[in-house]
From TrEMBL, chain A:
Species of origin: Lentzea jiangxiensis
Residue ranges of the TM segments: 34-56, 101-125, 132-153, 159-184, 213-234, 268-287
Location relative to the cell: Cell membrane
Name this polypeptide is given: Alpha-glucoside transport system permease protein
One GO-annotated biological process of the protein: transmembrane transport
GO cellular component: plasma membrane
Pfam families noted in UniProt: BPD_transp_1
Automatic annotation (TrEMBL), chain B:
InterPro entries, A to Z: MetI-like, MetI-like_sf, UgpAE/MalFG_permease
One biological process term in Gene Ontology: transmembrane transport
Family label: Belongs to the binding-protein-dependent transport system permease family.
Membrane topology: Multi-pass membrane protein
The entry's keywords: Cell membrane, Membrane, Transmembrane, Transmembrane helix, Transport
Species per Swiss-Prot/TrEMBL record: Lentzea jiangxiensis
Subcellular location: Cell membrane
Residue stretches spanning the membrane: 21-42, 76-96, 108-129, 303-322, 352-375, 403-423
Organism taxonomic ancestry: Bacteria, Bacillati, Actinomycetota, Actinomycetes, Pseudonocardiales
Pfam family, one: BPD_transp_1
Gene3D superfamilies cross-referenced by the UniProt entry: MetI-like
Name under which the protein is recorded: Alpha-glucoside transport system permease protein
PROSITE patterns the record matches: ABC_TM1
Cellular component, GO annotation: plasma membrane
Every ABC transmembrane type-1 domain range: 72-422
Amino acid sequence: MTPVADEIRIDVPVSGAPGRGVLTRLGSKLGNGFVQLLLTLIALFWLVPVFGLLVASLRDESANTGSGWWTVFTKPAELTLSNYAELVANKAVWQSFLNTFYIAVPATVLVVVMASLASYALAWIEFPGRETLTVVVVGLLVMPIQVALIPVAKLFGALGLFGTITGVVLFHVAFGLPFAIFLLRNFFTGIPRDLIEAARMDGATEWVIFKRVVLPVAKPAIASLTIFQFLWVWNDMLVALVFADQDSAPITVALRAQLRQFGTNIDLLATGAFLSMVVPLGVFLLFQKYFVQGVLAGSTK
Amino acid sequence: MRLRVNVDAAPGRSPRQAIPFLLPALVVLAALVLYPLVFSLVRSFFDASGDEFVGLRNYVDTFTDPRTLTAFRNNVLWVVVAPAAVTGIGLVLAVLTERIRWATAFRLVLFMPMAISLFASGIIFRLVYEEAPNQGVVNAVLVGVHDVFSPASRYPGARPRVGYAATEAGFTAVRPSKAGDTVSLPLIGFSPQDVPPQAVPASQPTAGAGELRGVVWLDVSVGGNAGKVDPVERGLPGIAVEAVRDGQVVARTTTGDDGRFTFPDPGSADVTVRLPPENFALPFRGLTWLGPSFITPVIISSWIWIMTGFAITFIAAGLSAIPRDALEAARVDGATEWQVFRRVTVPLLSPVLLVVFVTLVINVLKIFELVFVIAPGSVQSEANVLALQMWQVSFGTGGDQGAGSALAVVLLLLVAPAVLFNIRRFRRERS
């Protein structure tokens, strides 16, 4: 779309004088070449740190302490999967990797289900206080989780949920809900009124309208929310740092003990960090359209 | 699902039916967000144990505690520098990507850091800025560039055994020499393994008429005589030697493979032999990025890496909504690209830029993981920010939940303007 518009601009002489047209065209060509080069360099610049981590994760401890990852270009034979084999064989780390799933999947499902239900009510059922409730949800969007850490830790302690996966999941659900409701409510209100009214005229209950009319139409929004929420929880560290114990810790928390001796633990940390990145990167590349939409919609979070 | 005809409820006017839809979310929000919010407010007025009401003391302590004040200062630095930088970079790059065909791919690459955890990004940048130039790529590049302009010395740390005074100009002989003399320069403080391979055993030069001769060798053989050339001791090739008279260098030469050097014509008056410092300079090892002086800028740079893609994508979405005609009209009127950018694009985009900026400010105020991961334990107090301090005070080393609650409330107050901004924006969009 945009490149076409640019070309049209270039081919149409800006003013009447033909000499200026040629110069403008030349200048524009040179300028575009420069922009291409600049943006290529910036893109590479953005990729280098990740590439460095990937290479470091594929070199063993002695290689990493002895020389930088960039020496791989002269010594590609140093590459090995042994770090990954070791990490996967390490029960605690592997358990933490699984824990990350056990936390992220239910936290995502619960948020999507609860938010869809609540959003339907906020969008299509009239009840007293609906306006206020919506504004409260918007107000909660940027609530720092720090405000809840201490009280919820106490509450979970009393309920026996402290240090459990359930506790971590519940906290994520609570702080995922405002954004989820905000996003879905906005989408649901955009559904044509006729669609809902027609179903009501046919005598459908609210539950049926929600299930048969709203949910099918809202699939893209729900997809965005699912991916956004999953990555949000998957990538968390602070919540788990407070509420998880050693057995329920996700990978981010499990690896933090290795940070003390960074220089000699690069092999382990790089491998662990990359393992933790594989899932989000896969999700991102497969569903990038939905993820980007989710992030843009959730810009306030 | 059984269809039930609902005769008594007019369409859309059935308040009671909202309850089952709202209940699950409301229960969770009330129990885990709203109740804690109130609890934290109250808790912040009690002491560490939670038994004694202390009024505003936690807040007074918060604003007088040096660690919290450092955290405040860093948060201010973050808020002033980081969101503006990312918005600016994002704006420029979003406009530039409009001119390339692979804009989508470019935005994808820059957006990618948003998908991974701040923990992983922290590890990535800890590695990037690692101090050892054989591990951290930034220092590796710095050392590489530095060594091109001032090559690394061959004999770092070596020094003469006796008879030379260390000065800024190098090692200077204590006693002057003149033509016909021979000079001995036994060096120590350097490993025999690091002597260049072309070095051959040294020998004491014989005096030559009108010439000043000498030898520089590594005087560190086992059982050898200190200050004397022993048979196994090798000369040190490539060392610069200067002859100095009245503070002026009158001659300059370099030692051969046997460590010998000769000034063919030092003149009749006395000269002083000097070994300039470039022979022995310790290698440049880059900068201590993760030390106290650079740590916050370093963490900010990693945050810029993470958030720029977000800014570009958001601003690009805003750009595509700008009417093309407005830009074309300005161009037809003869405006330069810069003028179009300044006078048309930026003003039309300003609402979008404001939203991006506010979003980034909120994000910055909550910054935690990056500091936690990138700053080594010893400099974490230098890099401290409020969210990290809150965690430290409440759950880390502090264990004072009264002070922690006060910090949480302070954070809440800091994002409060953003809450109002969001509500107003929401209300405006509705109407």
